[in-house]
Fold this sequence. Notes:
15 strands, alpha/beta, Cobalt-precorrin-4 Transmethylase, domain 1, Methyltransferase, Cobalt-precorrin-4 Transmethylase, Domain 2, Rossmann fold, binds S-adenosylmethionine, about 20% strand, 5-stranded parallel β-sheet, 3 domains, 12 helices, about 25% helix
Amino acid sequence: xxxxxxxxxxxxxxxLLTVRGHRLxxxxxxxVYDALVNRELLELVPTSAERFDVGRRKGEKRIDQEQLNGLxxxxxxxxxxxxxxxxxxxxxxxxxxxxxxALTDAxxxxxxxxxxxxxxxxxxxxxxxxxxxxxxxxxxxxxxxQVLREPGDSPTPSTGxxxxxxxxxxxxxxxxxxxxxxxxxxxxGWNPGTPAAIIEWGTxxxxxxxxxxxLTLPARARAAGISRPALxxxxxxxxxxxxxxxxxxxPEAERSSPEVAPEPEEASGMDWTLxxxxxxxxxxxxxxxNRVLAVGVDTGERLxxxxxxxxLTLRSGHPVAVVTAMRALGPVEGHxxxxxxxxxxxxxxxxxxxxxxxxxxxxxxxxxxxxxx
Length: 373
Ligand SMILES: C[S@@+](CC[C@H](N)C(=O)[O-])C[C@H]1O[C@@H](n2cnc3c(N)ncnc32)[C@H](O)[C@@H]1O
């Protein structure tokens, strides 16, 4: 029975592979590798060795974790040196622990070779120290999923579970829902003006970094066309990039995503009118220059009957869903958001809009004899 080596490949730059990882790859009989492993590393593997690409790319049905564990156990039965090569560090959001447990249960010998996680390596190449005296004395690694939580979780996350505002937060796998992640962090207690960056293809020659604030980063990342792999960094340490920037990023790419200092933006674009229920619809006509949003299909229908075509009809009035949808249409910061409702409510939405730099103006109607308040 051979040994399985769970080897961290590092974040991308092949030079960041450990000496031990390098030696094991050169002597491997079989290598099982992920999508995020730099293919240049495979050149170290003897041509006689078997290669298994088990990377799961979005939209592709690939080998599942159980089959993968089975493959490792099977290979250990007939090969001496099986290298399981994983992006970054095997034990950081890489399911390396699950593979180690499966090998333990199967009685297969294994060793773990740590790698440079992208949560440290990509930041270092972007000139962002993970911690820095006086700016950040702690760091938190989270995935986008953990920030967003699943339905049924507590509605107001504690700041502690989303990192500490006096520390650095690194968010893995959060790019596709960056708007929601940023909004949720603000709701969880982070200041919307906190410097934030997104690093794409960290440590590769094609690395790109876009800088902004928690408020502006999602739009800037979108404008720059940032794609995966990418991770987001939130915290005061992002400011240091301006002075510690040592790794040359692709000048072509930078032209299309000019780095912008994390400063508040001038308000531009349109104000908003948000109808949160059907009752307020008859009592208020939105300004023609405003973007109009309706919460609920019925509300949207009523508006249409009165000749006001909503720009968007939302199914959910959940504050994060509302704000995320608004920010996908245009900026909210610096803008007036007129919230029209039959009865006063949505305190959390009002609070969140204020935190994001908007001016919520509530028009609540208490019935025929009451006045707008
Ligand atoms: C499944 S996790 C694996 C993390 C890996 N074990 C590590 O330690 O870096 C994949 C996520 O890591 C981040 N990531 C990995 N390599 C990256 C890179 N070179 N640049 C930016 N982000 C990277 C991205 O957020 C990506 O979606």
